[in-house]
Batch of 3 targets.
Target 1
Amino acid sequence: MRTPMQAPLPSMPSGEAGLPTTRVPASNCASAARPDEKMDYAVVMIAPPLHRVRTPLLLLLALLWFALTTMPRTSHATEEPQYTVLRTFGKTELRQYAPYVVAEVVLKVSAQEAGGQAFPILAGYIFGKNKGQKKFEMTAPVTQTAAPVTMEMTAPVTQSAAADGGTLVQFVLPKGVTLESAPEPLDPRVRLRLVPATQWAVIRYSGRWSQENDDEHLGLLRATLAQEGVATQGEPVLARYNAPFTPWFLRRNEIWLALR
């Protein structure tokens, strides 16, 4: 005579809510049988494999719909520096920016590493790591230069930092914040600076934050400006408008070149 542990465990019809069931030895399910009922097996429902359930797909579609319908509006609601569009060439704009104040840090790392290392430093300042523990709303964009630009353009770095290959990353402070009213950073690496009124040539694009994607659109920007006879100066500035968890196809990326 075969013991319950030696007996096969046949599959059973679907239980409640359509979930599949199986049989397990009653000894493993003490509450399965009534005191006056002798059971060798108890029927229990089991969770199906994730890939066989439609719920994750429906959830994914719901999240995608939410992103497509709400994220663009959220992006536009984020405060940006004021600018006026002077001319447009396809995807390229010539913009006149009003002055604004930034919190910035210069790191002696590559452009690919700078964003991840600079973000917690600058975020610490705007979220209260300053004298007075003042907090600011997050604005856009976060900008960085693959190489330092000149003092006349955005006044970001000294010549010694440029010689060491420093990478500049800037957070824009909200409208109305001045150098006089902005609280002093507690982190000595963070500096406050007034960015003067500047004219920029800008190309806007989506996609992943990769060197390949940035180089492709920088080439398009330079080619368009050359065709239109627009002269620029200095190094390109990368501008990121979205959080890292934003889907790549919804991201707003820009490259800026200062007009000569």
Target 2
Amino acid sequence: MDIQDSPFARKLAAFVQLSSADIGAMSDVYKRRRKVPVGRDMVYQGQKDQAAYIIASGWVCSYKMLPGGTRQIVDFQLPGDFLGLRSVLFRTADHNALPITPVEASEVLPEDLLNAFTATPRLATAVLWAASRDEAMVVENLVSIGRRTATERTAHFLLELGARLKLVGLADKTGYKCPLSQYLLADTLGLSAVHINRVLRELREENLLIFQGGRVTFLNFEAVVALADFDRAYLDHDGPLLR
């Protein structure tokens, strides 16, 4: 794939108008490709000297295991996302990362990042923006778990996934392909799988959205936005700030 057509380039272009130097630096970072099967952790909690990855295709979940054996999914990495950037900077991974679909990704070593950032500070600024947006999503998800109802929480999360995928050309207002099971949704939203099933049935019966057959379909997009009180400003997808 041409780097200019990659999800990574599309995502960064939402913040920075990419120059030929930026694209060249990205090509150097993007060149070390790996394929990872479903179920094989790419990052292990406590792992040291961990490489980062840029997801070219596929979905990954980042999660932490609790002492009692329960799991909390803290994020999903989608095409165009960095995986493990914080682990590179902190030198020790504080979470696990598991592909839930076959994944193709570019392995990024610390020296790759430093060389790219030295060559083009604008690329470093764009990556900083992406990391800040990810932090904003964590804050929003914390609000969901703490204060939103189960229905609002689920609708908000599905809208957020749609906005993230739309940024890289993989979704529109009608919906998107989504490989998540009800168990994965439960571990993300702090609900039981039975509760998730009930919420999805409610959303379907209210003619708001359908989630089945590996696809989220919005039947009334604006009504779902209103239900979840979804303000996409925290995602900062309104066009490049640096030109």
Target 3
Amino acid sequence: MKIVFHERYFTSDYSMDPAASPGRLEGIMDRLKANKEYEIIEPKPASEEDILRVHTKRLLQYIKRDKFLFELASLAAGGSILAAQEGYNGNPTFAVIRPPGHHASTDSCWGFCFFNNISISLLKLYSMSKIKSAFILDFDLHTGDGNINILTNREDDFRVKILNPSSSGHVNYIKEVESYMNKLHDIDIFVASAGFDQGIDDWGNLLYPEDYHELGNLMKNYSEKLCKGRRYALLEGGYNHTVLPKNVDSFCQGFK
């Protein structure tokens, strides 16, 4: 399994929000680097062409006003593209990136997000005629409205199904995900909008490390069933620095 990461993602002063807080990614990377099954690969920034495939010139110019923020947001988008390309090639990949992206829409952004990393990565594959459909499992506590706004009800022939589970108990949450996946068909790639703020010791107070392992395992099993195992995941939320590394690693262990 591959882990997309760049040392610049450790930078914590591009913004003043929980996703940008100091120390958020260090514990994750310490844990993942200790596992020799994981290969760390380094991304390059997304091009403006890749960004403009998803966002308006107005939003791009707005982010570019802050040179530092633009550098990191472009690098996060580039990390998502690399993860998507590796996932498409049959290498399960988790991208430890920031800023996150699932609240960024075509011409607006909020919720600690600036560019929509998932949309940029999927539409990159679509532009290369590699995929025509995708399934997104968005298990972040907060529904990725940007993913929905950009990737559903499109005028082209790219089709995306998105699940943000709503079950209140952790057992029913997993059952909801499996039931949804069991009905999927004609999917070219699986991607997780991987927010860990539903964790039992995080904001959502719902999912245990074992649940994240099962979510990863479901992504593995159903992607192998439907699309030759093509799958990747991008880090979104997750704010308890003490438990975040274990939850991420638990997901990766099921996902790999």
